[in-house]
Amino acid sequence: MKENKVTFEEIMFSVIAATQDTFRAYLNIEVLAGKVLEKVEPVEADVVGIVGIAGTRVGYILFAVDRATAELVAKKLLMVDTADPDSIRDSVGELANNIAGALKSKYNEQYGGVALGLPLIMSGKITPMETESADIRMNVQSHGVIIPFKSFDADISFKVMVYI
C-alpha cells in the first residue's frame, strides 16, 4: 500500500481555510489571510492559544491576538457586552482548538493518524529557544509559517502560526 504524504503547503492552506471557516461559523466574520511569512520567529501578543498536534506529523498551531481583538472575539463568541479575563482566555482557546480541529478532521480523513492536545493559553513574548551564545542558534527541526489575518473592516486582526 502506497503511503500518502501531506506537504507542508497543503497543511498551510488547510490552516488558512480552517481559520476562515471557524471565524465564519462561530463569529459570522469574514477574515482575509495576508502574506504568508515562511519563518520561525518570536511571537509577541497579549493572548496566545497553542494547540499541539501529534501523529504522523508533530507540531503546533498558535493563534495570537492583541487584547482588543481578544476582547472583541470573546464578546462576539459568547454574545455578551463585556468579557472578563477568564472568558477572553477561554474564547481564544476555543478558537485555537477549532482551527486545529478543522485541520485534524481534514488531515485524518485524507492521511490518518492525527491527535490534538488541550489548548494552552499564554500571553507575552514566546521566543524560540537558542543556545547561550548569541552567535549559535538552535536548529529548529520544523517548518514554520506566520499567517496574518484581518477582517474586512480591520477591527479584528491576528496571526496564526503553524509549526510542523
Write the layout of secondary structure elements.
Elements: H1 8-27, E1 31-33, E2 43-55, E3 59-65, H2 67-78, H3 85-111, E4 114-116, E5 120-126, E6 144-151, E7 157-163
Antiparallel strand pairs: 1-6, 2-3, 2-4, 2-5, 3-7, 6-7
Notes on the protein architecture:
This protein is an alpha+beta fold and 164 residues long. The chain is built from three helices and seven strands, in the order αβββααββββ. It has one domain (8-129, 140-159): 3-Layer(aba) Sandwich (Chemotaxis protein chec), CATH 3.40.1550. Strands 1, 2, 3, 4, 5, 6 and 7 form a seven-stranded antiparallel sheet that branches. α2 (67-78) crosses α3 (85-111). Mean pLDDT is 82; it is low at 130-141.
Summarize the entry for a quick read:
This protein is of the alpha+beta class and 164 residues long.
Overall mean confidence score, pLDDT: 82
Give the helix level as a range of percent: 25-40%
Alpha carbon gap, first and last residue: 25 Å
CATH fold description: Chemotaxis protein chec
How is the main sheet built? Answer: 7 strands, antiparallel
- CATH architecture grouping: 3-Layer(aba) Sandwich
The radius of gyration computed from the alpha-carbon positions, rounded to a whole number of angstroms, is 16 Å
- Strand percentage, roughly? 25-35%
Structural class: alpha+beta
